[in-house]
Write the structure tokens for this entry.
Amino acid sequence: MVGRNIARLNAVDVVLWGLRVGVVAVVVIGTVGTLIKGRYNAAQWFDFIMFGLTIGSIYAQIALGYTMVYGVLRLINFAHGDIVMTGAFAGYFVAMPLDRSGFLEDNPVLAMAAILLVAVIVSTSIAVLTERIAYRPFRRVVGLAPLICAIGVSFFLEQTFRGMFGSAVKSYPDPQWQRAAFHVFGFNVPRIDVLVIGLALIFMGLLYLIVQRTRMGTAMRAVAEDGEAAALMGIDVNKVVVFTFVLGGAMAGIAGVFYAFVYKQVYFLMGFTPGIKAFGAAVLGGIGNIPGAMLGGFFLGMVESVGPTLFLDGIGIPAPYQLRDLIAFTLLIMVLIFRPHGLLGEALAKKRA
Amino acid sequence: MGALLKWSAGVALLCASQATTAATVGPVTDDLGVIRIAKGAPIQIGAYWVLSGADTALGLDEKRGVEIAFKDMGGKLLGHPLKLNAEDDGCNAEGGQTAATKLAANPQTVIVLGPACSSAATPGAPILWQQGIVDICTACTAPALTAPTRKKEYDGFARTVFSDSEQGKADATYVHNVLKAPSVVTIHDGSPYAQQLQQVMADNFRQLGGKVLSQEAIAPTDVDMKPLLTRIASEKPDLIYFPVFTAAAAQIVRQARGTPGLEKTKLMGGGSLLSADFIEAAGPAVVGFIIGYPDLSPEAMGKNYPKFVEEYKKAYNEAPISGYHANAYDGAMLAVKAIEKVAKTDKDGNLYIGKKALRDAVFATTFDGISGPIACDQYGECSQFKPSVLEFTSSDPKTFGVGKNPKKIWP
Amino acid sequence: MMRRAALIGLAFGAGAVHLAAVGVLLAMHQRWIIVEALTLGQAALLLLAGGAGAMTRGPVMGALAGAAAGVPVVALLAAMSLVPLNSIFIALSHDLFNMLTLGVGLAAGVAILIGGGAIAGLVGVLLSNSSQMVRRAIFPGAISVVVAGVFQELIQLMLQQYEGPVGDFRDFIYTWEGLSLQGAIAIFVLAALLSEVFGFIWRMRAERTASHDHRRERMVRAGIALLILVLLPMLGGSYVGQVLMLVGLYILMGMGLNLEVGLAGLLDLGFVAFFAVGAYSTALLTAGSAHALMHLPYWAAMPVSVLLAVAVGVLFGLPVLGVRGDYLAVATMGLGEIVRVIVQSDFAAPLLGGAQGILEIPKPSIGNFVLGNPVSLFYLTLVASAVAAFVAWRLENSRLGRAWEALRDDEDVAQALGINLVRAKLLAYGLGAAFAGLAGSIFATMLTSVYPSSFQLLISINVLALIIVGGMGSLPGVVLGSIVLIGLPELLREFGEYRYLFYGAVLIVMMRLRPEGLWPSDVRQRELHAEDETLALDAGTDAVPAQPR
């Protein structure tokens, strides 16, 4: 019986190893093939990387919200992507009048601060409201009911915004200062990309400091470690949860505005896809782990941008960018095969079983 | 088990026997049956479009086009109120089938408008025709739906929108013969519409002797087009052809401008981008962007289309949100005109409409619509396709108007 | 006390403002419940004010709460008349203003709103405090009128095929616009009477059988429900058949996912992949188009499709064997998306048709009889569901089922008990996939065409939602969940753009009221109940949601 068990396990292992070898082989052959073809010059490769970092920094910010809420509540906050959308919408209604009056063009710093502030206020309020109305009643409920409720919240938010602001695609303003580019060593670096990546890093650093250094942050980590023990130690769990949603909502609002400034579009379903991707990024880094979420976000962004060209071009697959999600998710699964708890995660998934 | 199957088969047989039969009701005799509308009762016109999910704007726009058409009729026809029963089809096959089944189950459904997506029309139209109901499609452009080889079950299908095969051929001809561009790259978004159109265009372009460097694809939800555009730039095409929908097309237009290597490359899109919404979404980069679209006769267009847009804005508090409202308006007009032709009123004020007669009337009606002249051929192709190319001249959405922005540059 | 009533009222009023701003209110206003007397929008407003009243105690508080519910709406009206809000909020139109003020201008409108709110609140609180007798009459009566009014199109559709007494009844209660006033009164009285009579019988029986068998009661109810399900399409016609057929497909998928999630505890967000495999296999094996590999009859293609789905299920399970909990959710979601991307891609288009899908899939036939219409296909689905339900039920009570349950409760303990984890997990994926493959196969023949757009992540989410809403691990729960989450949105198809707003709200409300699901399995219920008791002992900070019994 035991012997048969082992034999079976081995067969499984062989398949798994075959899979790993196969994926690695595709990656290596594709990469080598692409590089030998020499279709792209250094500047173009540099561009691929910049694009990846830009979208990656946005994924990273969204992923933080997923990961913090998961750490504290063990809840996959499915509606988090839609919080991003609410922030982008709020920013839009500030950015448009500012653009029309010429303020956005003349005072970029003040204007951006105002846009971000309003976006953060709105996204944070909605995140906290969501927690109060939809998630708090489930604090002690085991099972998947909270997840389904979160899915319901996601639909509800999307459709509410569609109803209020219409289903058309709205367009963010495009001031001159965002369109310029730096030229470094012959490489072309768009200013908006630098701005978004830089600010994202600053905000994420700030968030990390808040979680590590402040009293509230410490309490948050204590609750994430062991909620019941933390409650016994006199920590107000409700307050900590609200605080977590405030932080996550704020990051989502910022991410929403950045996303909209880079890609210029807001519409009611815009949060869904980046939300799903960021959720993947959070898991990739090790869900519940803050540096992991950032790492996962950047990793996913890079794979999406560089991957199709680097891996598939060499093999001669048509329309590689249609397979962007395939590459992203395949690598995600490969990471989980090698490291079942993500890049930086620990074995905390057992708590939830 | 066997018995059960037999039993259920029997039940099914029972239910299947509702098919259409010749009938005489009131003053009308018809091979496919007659609809009787009592005095004061509404003329029920069914419709199915995508009204939920990511493509909501596409379907909602058409629904509004029809609502405005009804409003222009005063909401009444032959003394009966017009009632629109609009269903959601989700732009997929199962939604189209369910919506069509619901519309077909209503014996008062006179005629059906929609859907927006060919994938919904493919299962939907035969279900309606089985009950003798004509389906006038307002945005499904798949060539197979009106091909001479189409099956009998599509006999009741007509459309006030042109076929991809015409459009793709015209676009290829323009790019090759007028622009004299030797090489192109195409992009589609995985939707049947865009995939088909770019394929037809690419095939025709090759036949004319042009070079198709590659045929790329994206997901409709993609926002980051720069990696793809950088890849395309390495092939140095003279033109990029992407008949995709507003959100993705606007991203391509915007991001192509900043991509090194694409400075001299022309960009060309499809008819779904003919809206103020697209101008807003694409921003300043829209100037000089061209789309292939059927030629809209200036007389008909100049008179009625701007008025339509004004009505639209007044009624819905936003500019037209997608590209096929005009086709939908014309579809509704075609339906109404055909009903007017065949409907008979008895002395008590009841209205009778023969189904076969209505089908024939739809296929025989001609008029000048706001999307161009409408006249159906025997396979249900009702818009008279005359190719043209339009160029956007300003990035201010308020200047949107066919003929001005975008303005006609060919022929 | 007063503050509480006022706050409740304001909260409900905020709900009304939300409805107005989203545009639902106006859309509802365009639909009669009772022709020329009451629109759905007005009913919604009254319901909100009444609901606010019902949550308070005493007539004064009720009236206060109801009036308070009118305040946010009044504030909205004031804002609308002062600022051109509709340049941002597109739904705040002139028509909405007229609807809320009943077209009599702002001042009079405000009085009506506040006054009407107060009266509705008063009625609400009186009703909630009234005797059981009264409530048993009024609620079913009111609900019946609303259902008959809102779904008038559908009900008329069903009644339209009948002549004679049914036709006369239809003409009595309905005009072509909707429910007539006489019809509404008739339905109200009828429903109230029926409710009283059945309530009386029910109590008599309950008294006679002092310790009545709970299980048997449920079986009887399930049996009645099943009978209705079998007969409904015959009575209701092809549209009802079509809706029930979709419900049936989701029941099949739900039972499959239930094996994975409910029994084995393997959270799967990529379930749609197996559905796609079933559909595409059938398409490739039977279609008349160029993509077909073979032209098998449907009955031969179906088992092959199921087997292929099983094979893919096992393949699917292999890489994620070591992945647990929520990591598994993401991994499976990724696998599901991979399948969708491949199906849609130009890369696989020569084989799978790409964006253009595969057309000309024949309908199944028995002898010369073609299962062509929705009703006959519904019975095919029903038979398939019955077989699948039997299999699922046997599996649940088998050795394998118990192994799965051990796996769900604690993977490490299960391994220590000598359960072969690899085998148990792969079987869960494979067998779960079989159900979805069967559903996919029927789906393909139902549509006679398959397109990649039918296999979105949303399907996986819907299937997961329906088994949770139904009650995880419970077969009747799957049926109930499918009816509520798939059937209801189908019936709301005419609400088009607002469909998913309602869907989201239903998910939230349902989960808040019954986190254990509508029809939880006995084990689950006990577990949750035990949880409650330990929580009650625990001096927790949170209110535990009430468990309605």
About this structure: Residues 348-353 of chain A have pLDDT under 50 and may be disordered.
